[in-house]
Amino acid sequence: MGLSIGIVGLPNVGKSTLFNALSSAKAEAANYPFCTIEPNVGVVVVPDDRLAKIDSVIHAQRILPTTFNFVDIAGLVRGASKGEGLGNQFLSHIREADAIVQVGRCFEDPNVIHVENKVDPVADIGTVTMELCLKDLETVTKRRDKALKMAKSNDPKEKLAAEVCEMLVKHLDDGRPARTAPIPDNVDAHAIVGELHLLTIKPAFYIANIDEATIANPEGNHHFQAMKKLADAEKTFVVPVCAALESQIAELDPKDRPEFLESAGLKEPGLNAVIRAGYKLLGLLTFFTAGKQEVRAWTTKIGAKAPQAAGVIHTDFEKGFIKAEVMWWEDLVNLGSEAKCRDAGKLAIEGKEYVMRDGDVVHFRFNV
Length: 368
Prior knowledge:
This protein is an alpha/beta fold. The protein has 14 helices and twelve strands. It has helices at residues 15-22, 50-58, 87-96, 121-150, 156-173, 187-196, 222-233, 243-251, 257-263, 270-281, 306-313, 315-319, 329-335, 338-343; strands at 4-8, 40-45, 62-64, 67-72, 99-106, 204-210, 238-241, 284-290, 294-301, 321-328, 347-350, 360-366. The chain has a six-stranded mixed sheet with strand order 2-4-1-5-6-7, with helices on both faces. Strands 3-9-8 form a three-stranded mixed sheet, sandwiched between helices. The chain has a three-stranded antiparallel sheet with strand order 11-10-12. The longest helix is centred in the middle third of the chain and has 30 residues, at 121-150. The radius of gyration is 23 Å and the shape is flat.
């Protein structure tokens, strides 16, 4: 789908280390600010054990997981909204991302410098958020002023725009992101906000970069607790990760990882939780296609109908959509074949209004 999540935060909070572990791309990770000057894009595989289970009855030539992109964006500093540091590049790269994950440093280490000379992840997040809010404030203020002038002609849309923008101005001026603003629940108001293309309207969650000593019990890390309180207030979530540990896990042979994870007191790599959080944040689901050539996972939006899902595979599939033959993945695995699913009444023929489920195994029929 080409969806991307931008990894942001102050310099030296562990963004590039985390990115290196997330993807096969290797961003430079150095102990000084701005070591990542251009955004690094990593194609991240979404872990899904259902693929292997489906293939256990299909025996395909290859298995292809679904993916989406993480983007490691250059560290931001105070004043970025005015172009300080690498502010202009940072803001433009944020604008291109579909969602944002902010990394907060939750470990003490005198050997790793901090741009603010203190470890306070909530304050760090506040700095980044404020810079984004200030940039959005410029955008909203200009739109409000324009709306106020045009509203004199009794244009109802401009009157509404003036009201919505005035509310956003006050909200952003307090350092609160637009996504938490009380936007009126009507189509016109949301359309006005959408036209502004605000940075802080993007969905967001947090990663707490914790040390190895507390990663097995993050609740015992007071920095993590502070980040969790912030996330709860914004009705989002925070994922505890030890970026340094994840880098080690990523370098291991897959067969050696379970023992390493057990020694660290972990059940799975923290990055799996990060990827799931990204999926949840963007409102995504996974469906499958299965044949002798390949068993493959695909990504679409929650709520997508069958033709839209078909279009993820190829635009012709959506244009010429006729029907979808749908099985639930567990039925396919338990019964052992598509034929047995059909005989048992577990294979359904669905039309254009069918809403996809996470875990559907689908064969699309189309004609172009």
